[in-house]
Amino acid sequence: MRSYLFGSGIISAITGGLALLRGVRNGEAFTWRMALAWVSWGISLALAVGTIVDTRRAARGKNIDLDSPVSGREDKLMKKRARRGR
Questions:
Q1: Which of 47, 63, 58, 60 is nearest to 10 (CA)?
Q2: What contacts 12, CB < 8 A, 6 or more positions away?
Q3: How does pLDDT run across 56-73, given as a tens digit for each residue?
Q4: Residue 17 in contact with residue 41, Cβ under 8 Å?
Q5: Which of 18, 27, 54, 56 has a C-alpha 20 to 30 A away from that of 45?
Q6: C-alpha–C-alpha distance, residues 55 and 9, integer Å
Q7: Range of the domain at 50
Q8: Burial code of 22-49, b = ≥16 C-beta within 10 A, e = fewer?
Q9: 13-25: per-residue pLDDT in tens?
Q10: How far apart are CA 41 and CA 45, in angstroms?
Q11: What is the pTM of this model?
Q12: Domain count within the chain
């Protein structure tokens, strides 16, 4: 589970969210640019979580969508999981 939580996608989404929170705390006005930044952050967080879910499903031998970033590497992930003994 640690490999999923400390992945680069989640870490970058968290640091991006922290940067946005700092901007809100400094009293900056909420403009359309700020709204777009929050929407962008939400999308990047959703994509990072989706990749984690797809990786976990592929490692367990379950079907994943063809548009997933992990599609085509299911065998490699299953072998890696088998080597760990889980």
A1: 47
A2: 44, 48
A3: 777 777 777 666 767 676
A4: yes
A5: 27
A6: 13
A7: 2-84
A8: eeeeeeeeeeeeeeeeeeebeebbeebe
A9: 889 999 888 888 8
A10: 6
A11: 0.70
A12: 1
The structure tokens listed for 4 are 């999923």
Letter for the amino acid at 27? G
- Scanning the structure block, which residue is given the tokens 């939400």? 42
Q: Which two tokens stand for residue 50?
A: 């989706």
Say which residues have a Cβ less than 8 Å from residue 64's Cβ, sequence separation at least 6.
54, 57, 58, 70, 71, 74
